[in-house]
Amino acid sequence: MAKTKTPAAEVIDNTEELKNEYGIERRKFQKAPLLTKKEKKNLGIGRDEGRASAKHLRVPASKAKLVLDLIRGKDLEEAYGVVKFTPRAASEFILKLMVSAEANAVNNFELDKEKLFVAEAYAGQGTTLKRLKPNARGSASRIRKRTSHITVVLKERA
């Protein structure tokens, strides 16, 4: 038995019958479908935030999260001060991301710089570079050089 394709016009005309035949809800879960970039742009989703992300940074995600936890929810100027004077390797990367997110918010979406705050700041684990370290008696141990993906989102305080 070969399947036959139904013309689009016929499907549009018989939508009610098809819903009854196949069940009204075709999705397994009641989650909203993912939107494409074009649909998001038409709906204006994401126009109230400045977002910046960097991938494959040579800082472990666990160490980056220590700095991100300090700035989450703070005003932009206060967050700048905290990051500048935090003696961590991830601070330099996070400062660059905050400057980029601020530029995106102000230039692309005309948000007020004075009202911006750090709405979201998170780090996820990236790829791990695996290296070998020579050990005694001809053996070797593995060194894991971890990387991270860091994202900073700035929004306007109401």
Q: Could you characterize the architecture of this molecule?
A:
- By secondary structure, the protein is of the alpha+beta class.
- It has a domain at 46-54 and 63-125 and 149-156: Alpha-Beta Complex (Ribosomal Protein L22, Chain A), CATH 3.90.470.10.
- Helix content is 39%, strand content 28%.
- The protein has six helices and three strands.
- It has a three-stranded antiparallel β-sheet with strand order 1-3-2.
- α5 runs antiparallel to α6.
- The model has no long low-confidence stretch (mean pLDDT 88).
- What CATH calls the topology of the domain at 46-54 and 63-125 and 149-156 is Ribosomal Protein L22, Chain A
- If you compute it from the alpha carbons, what radius of gyration comes out, rounded to the nearest whole angstrom? 24 Å
Gap between N and C termini: 61 Å
Let me know the CATH homologous superfamily of the domain at 46-54 and 63-125 and 149-156.
Ribosomal protein L22/L17
Shape estimate: flat
* Biggest sheet features: 3 strands, antiparallel
Specify the number of helices: 6
CATH architecture of the domain at 46-54 and 63-125 and 149-156: Alpha-Beta Complex
Q: Share of helix among residues?
A: 25-40%
N-to-C order of helices and strands: HHHEHHHEE
Strand tally: 3
Strand order of the largest sheet: 1-3-2
Quickly name the level 1 CATH class of the domain at 46-54 and 63-125 and 149-156: Alpha Beta
Strand content: 25-35%
Unreliable segments of 5+ consecutive residues:
none
Q: What is the residue-mean pLDDT, rounded to a whole number? A: 88
Strand pairing plus helix content: what structural class? alpha+beta
